[in-house]
Amino acid sequence: MSEYIKVAVDAMGGDYAPQEPVKGVVEALREKPELYVYLVGQEDVLKKELDKYTYPEERLEVVHASEIIETGEPPVHAIQKKKDSSLVKALRMVRSKEASAFVSCGSTGAVLVGGQVLVGKSKGVERAPLAPLIPTATGVSLLIDCGANVDARSSHLVQFARMGSIYMEYVMGVKNPKVGLVNIGAEEEKGNALVKETYPLLKECKDINFIGNVEARDIPKGVCDVVVCEAFVGNVILKLYEGVGATLISKVKAGMMSTLRSKIGALLVKPALKETLKSFDASEYGGAPLLGLKGLVVKAHGSSKANEIKNSLIQCITFSKEDICGKIQENMKQDNKGDN
Amino acid sequence: MSEYIKVAVDAMGGDYAPQEPVKGVVEALREKPELYVYLVGQEDVLKKELDKYTYPEERLEVVHASEIIETGEPPVHAIQKKKDSSLVKALRMVRSKEASAFVSCGSTGAVLVGGQVLVGKSKGVERAPLAPLIPTATGVSLLIDCGANVDARSSHLVQFARMGSIYMEYVMGVKNPKVGLVNIGAEEEKGNALVKETYPLLKECKDINFIGNVEARDIPKGVCDVVVCEAFVGNVILKLYEGVGATLISKVKAGMMSTLRSKIGALLVKPALKETLKSFDASEYGGAPLLGLKGLVVKAHGSSKANEIKNSLIQCITFSKEDICGKIQENMKQDNKGDN
Fold first, then answer.
1. Which residues from chain B sit within 8 angstroms of residue A75, using beta carbons?
2. In this structure, are residues A104 and A278 in contact, taking their beta carbons and an 8 Å threshold?
């Protein structure tokens, strides 16, 4: 059946590999009949892990790869040297079109470098941004770019705004997604040289819904759907989001445990609170796509459990069905043609 | 008595002026016998406000200023035009050494511009950074720079690290404060051009305790006492801190109110939780100093209540007693002499 969406999964990457990636894959296969998975990694290890589950075996193929790229290995070197690693082999399957998407919880650096080198950028794309979804008061926003290529130019940011808009519209179903430019003030004349140069370019883009500058304070409120920034700033935002959230939640927990009275109260609020905090947990939203490549590359958290991996695979299905790669390439071709 | 610490307070700036600034001044005067305040603003308004309180009148002097600089006014223009504004008049008192410090909850832009233009930078200081204290899991860290002058050079960042270290050591009492450079990874070779250039310079500084790069995720954990970054990044960190905190707390509150069971629990945890969250509230730590000037300029939040203003005034006393301006100027003179 040719309508399967084929995804190559690096089963050996991440803190809980291969157990959690395998479990996530099994769960996704059970839930989505159109999904086909190439599970890439050490065959004996993976087969032993798969034996734990019943799943639609006709839609899973184990692809042997003897090596593993560890977190912390210099990415470029690892990609060049470990040709028989699960990460490299799985990415090559996207390049060769055997698979339309790739998912890994492995080394961010290796996924970013490998995605660009082994899968390659679409024609017209200047830089491939890493674009995770971040939780907000009202839902999620796409934070673009959080990748490893810093010191971007304004033309990059304009492309990020366009790619992000396509993603939010067709993968997340947000009509006419609002695009905001991260800045230190709301006024057009504020900011550093990069954003000052980018602002008028975004204003002229007719194919996006640019709402102007957004201050970091307003990002968690969900004021825009696509949060455009340079990768250094995006990385700071993403990591601070996690850091402030984690510290604050541990403070709340400690506060609840501080007196006998509050301990009793904690027992009562716990179930309701757990549900609420789950909605502010980034892992609920799958991994981050590396956009602008010839195929979809998804980087899931290193600490991903089965649920995030399952969600990443589901995201791949929508992405492929909606032909986001094609839509992005089409849009990039029109580069600047949207302007007067 | 010449040992008074004299502070000029812009009583007309901020969302709750003049009520809260006046209340904060009164509370500080009652608590600190060495404090002397010039309360600058519209005399009739201030006197009426002061009539509400009993306080040591011999240590407060109302200085009349007829104009008010509003938030949102273009700073440079406002400073030049409104010469009889409370902000300009109070800053001039620092310039003329009538007062050793200045506190305002008014327009950030006007305070930053006014501080640099009217008070002036100390000799050797290339750029005056705005350095608020931010709450962490273990206490507070100084985030330097969050000011309005973006696109810094590496030599600026090195000066920020030094000034921040002096502040944390002598005002906050942290011995040998740990200095971290905000980056997107822990390794020396990571980052954008600016931080790559700054890292080796900080490593060579013998008068600071440089611990290397810090990722944004680790800032809330309190891994370092002085968090060095360029102003655009600092602004994003500061505002996102507030934004994520506010959104998360409102989520926690909503979660607690979602079921009858959790509502009862909420009543029980509330007192303990309030105490904990207070420790993560930036307003507890007074305003942000603008360092490297010939006198102390403190910018308090626009939404400051009396407590923050009182704390800002107390901060001014320590700052002046420890002669931080003198220490910074001394340190800047030795610029690069600490290196081999």
1. none
2. no
Q: How far is CA B129 from the centre of its chain?
A: 10
Co-location of B198 and B67 in the same domain: no
Q: How far is CA A320 from the centre of its chain?
A: 15
User: Which is it for strands A5-10 and A101-104: parallel, antiparallel or unpaired?
Assistant: parallel
**Residues of B numbered 258-287 whose beta carbons fall under 8 angstroms of chain A's beta carbons: which are they?**
258-259, 261-262, 264-273, 275-277, 279-280
Distances (CA, A) of A210 to A165, A206, A219, A291, B309: 10, 9, 15, 20, 39
Q: Specify burial of residue A227 (Cβ count, 10 A radius: 0-12, 13-18, 19+).
A: buried
H/E element, A178:
strand A178-183
- Say if the Cβ atoms of B220 and A244 lie within 8 Å: yes
Of A258, A281, A304, the position where a domain reaches its end is A281
Q: Is residue A34 part of a domain?
A: yes
Q: Are B142 and B210 found together in one domain?
A: yes
**A183 lies in some domain:** yes
Residue B130's alpha-carbon distances to A188, A214, A273, B216, B280, in angstroms, are 22, 21, 37, 19, 20
Query: CA-nearest residue of chain B to A190?
Result: B148
pLDDT tens digit string along B262-309? Answer: 888 888 888 888 877 777 776 667 789 999 999 999 999 888 999 999
pLDDT at res. A335: 61
Write out B213-241 in H/E/C secondary structure: EECHHHCCCCCCCEEECCHHHHHHHHHHH
Q: Is A239 on the interface with B (CB under 8 A)?
A: yes
Is A13 in the same domain as A60? yes
Pairing of strands B226-228, B140-144: parallel
Which pLDDT tens digit goes with each residue over B19-48? 999 999 999 999 999 999 999 999 999 999
Residues of A in contact with B253 (CB under 8 A): none
d(CA A198, CA A145): 14
Note down the domain range covering A265.
Answer: 132-281
Cβ contact A259–B276 (<8 Å): no
A–B CB contacts, 8 A cutoff, strictly below: 197
Separation of alpha carbons B171 and B311, rounded Å: 13
Give the ipTM: 0.89
Three-state secondary structure call for residue B180:
strand
A42-60: pLDDT as tens digits: 999 999 999 999 999 999 9
Q: ω before A135 within 30° of 0 (cis)?
A: no
**Residue pointed to by tokens 């067709």:** A170
Quote the number of domains for chain B: 2
CB distance A169 to A331 below 8 Å: no
- Distances, alpha carbon A232 to alpha carbons A150, A189, B246, B256, in Å: 6, 21, 24, 36
Angle between helices B154-170 and B193-204 (to 10 degrees): 50
In 10 A of CB B227, how many CB atoms? 31
